[in-house]
Known about the structure:
By secondary structure, the protein is an alpha/beta fold. The chain has 2 domains: 2-97; 108-372, 3-Layer(aba) Sandwich (Rossmann fold), CATH 3.40.50.1820. It has 11 helices and 19 strands.
Amino acid sequence: MTGTQRHISSNGMLPDLGRDGDDLLFSLEDRGNVHLYRVATDGSGTPERVLGGDRVVSGMDRAGGTTAFLSATSSRLAELYVLNPDGTERRLTHLTDPFHAAVPSPAPSYLAVPAPAGDGDVDTWVLLPDGDGPAPVLLSIHGGPMTQYATAFLDEFRLWAAAGYAVVWCNPHGSTGFTENWARAIRAPEAREKPGTGWGGIDADDVLAALDGALAAFPRLDPDRVGVLGGSYGGFLTSWLVGHSDRFAAACSERAVNNLESAEWSSDIAAWFRWEIGVDHVEHPEVYRRMSPVTYVRAIETPLLILHSENDLRCPIEQADALFVPLRMLDRPVEYWRFPEEGHELSRNGSPRHRVARARIILDFFARHLGGAAPDEVPAG
């Protein structure tokens, strides 16, 4: 039963919960989807799915026998719906129709890529650009690590596709939306409970397998023009990959964790990493250093773009400095942009001028290294 093997979806740090009489309503992450479930508060029975499908259900409320909720898919932004007592759904709003009429949004292709560890499939998606010719590739890695890329409309991926890139993304080990063992597989080997491979182990294997699966499935994808990028934990894994592989033509590490040891005392969630990793940095500093991308900085030859916000409390600015300074000392190809008065959520809720600047910087960087469209060449529609 998936209700006992999936993660409750959260809005920020709090679960998305509601009441239906004596039952509790909650959102459950399932292989990229987010579904609505009901369970009795007295502990009887098993969770029952109320709303399913290839979509993300969120923001629900219930009154008078009717459930209101938001529903989004990989090709459409969220709109407001109601679930009637007879089980039928009715859409109440059409706020996004003008946008989708002006900006066609084809659904990405889904691939079930066998995990190298042999314990399941890595859920992978590919969004192709218009045209028939060879396309450069952007491999995007989500943050967290215990989150998932959801089957919702991802605006940045649409922007990159409009610039001529094939975009590949996946939910590797460490992600939510699958089993507890899948999420915990990246705990340190030294962890006393549920040891795993550590960050940069099975998760790195998975994202490379997803990339290889996409390259094999879509001959249009140019294997010689592949870039990788991600933010927060995704920034960590980007920094890690370019320190352990030379297959990428360019990379963008954003708001990354580059030094796990110093993050454990400088982050606004200081002392959290010991629970995530399974050991603490006082007794086992060597574990934190072994899993830190800065440890492997001498191996980084890939052209690297570093983006970071100066008021980032989750991954303080020193995390970016820790990678940039040695790369400059080693005379490696690195570019560094710092955003003043912004925090960890720049890409989602930063000031409009900085969000636009960030998007243009990313497009400009990959245009120079992979050959996609420059910012001023991206079609408006």
